[in-house]
Amino acid sequence: MLRKPLLYITIFGFFLFACNDKETFREIKPIGVETLTIGNTNNTTYFTSENYPGTIQAKTDAQLSFQVSGDINTIRVNNGEYVEKGRLIATIDPTTYVEQYEAQKAKADLAQENFTRINEVYKKGSIAEIRMIEARSNFKQAQSAANAAYQNVKKTKLRAPFSGYIGSKMMETGGVANPGMPVVELLTINQVQAIISLSDEEVNTYKVGDSATVTVNALDKAFTGQLTEIAIQSGSQNPVYKAKITIPNPDKILKPGMACQTSFNQSKQKNITENNLQSIVLPVQVVSITDEGKNFVYIVDTEKNTAKRKFVEIGTLHNDGITIEKGLQKGDVIITSGYHKLTNNTPVKVLSK
User: Fold this and answer.
1) What CATH number is given for 52-59+188-267 in this structure?
2) Which CATH number is 66-177's, of 3.40.718.10, 2.40.50.100, 2.40.50.40, 3.30.450.40?
3) Is the pTM of this model over 0.70?
4) Span 319-352, pLDDT tens digits
């Protein structure tokens, strides 16, 4: 009676073993990956998707202000309005300056009459030459003072120094203007500039004249520009250098203040050798980290067509890339897509190189 249950148990055990054995030897489907080969030649071109965030600014931007103080009588422009060169922008009460000019003009007229009279007497030889010279000097001084007072009268009117758009109004009618206090902002947008920042490691990578692509997400459009200025000195707070990319804007669709992303239209040429691995820059997301804090990337074992974990030492962090200082060598095929599905020795299928 005991033999039949024992036989059933034995048969059931063999059945489970057969199922498990079949599962164990099930073929694993390769993971599709994209790759980047390090150092196909001594002069290797590698790509880093370095996008520099920035802001669109007007190429010419001036804050207009009065050169004399006074109460603002009128501001004759509105925000966004186009004005021609020489157009009247604003005025301040000229009363005080007109009175000063009239007083100085009266003194100048009196000094002129005095000089004319004394000069006639001097020509007749009736007075010393020094009296004529003093009268002439007094006349010239009074005339200069009158001219200066007249210039102050002219300065009570603020005019556009060039043609452009009113970017903003800082003051309104009734306000008190002081010399140098901005009243309106005048700018031109036929050409605009993308203002970006370069780190001290990057500032010598580019040069004036380089072509760049500026993408404005708000417009869903990319524009071609040219690097026209690179600061020679970094900012006082951070070691970054301001750079300007000039962009034609004939349709006036690029507006100052828009956010943008800039990338330079060039491949970076680096001489990659075993002693120059710091030249390798990879996208940040390609580099993973273990629980112990070690950095690694996946490379392709070309003989076995499997993924292989390779530990690396990282260096400088760029906008969208990171420098690899140690751990990689020429010929390594870096997995740049599909790495999140991988473990060591996972079969892979290269989709592109």
Assistant:
1) 2.40.30.170
2) 2.40.50.100
3) no
4) 557 888 888 888 888 888 888 888 888 998 888 5
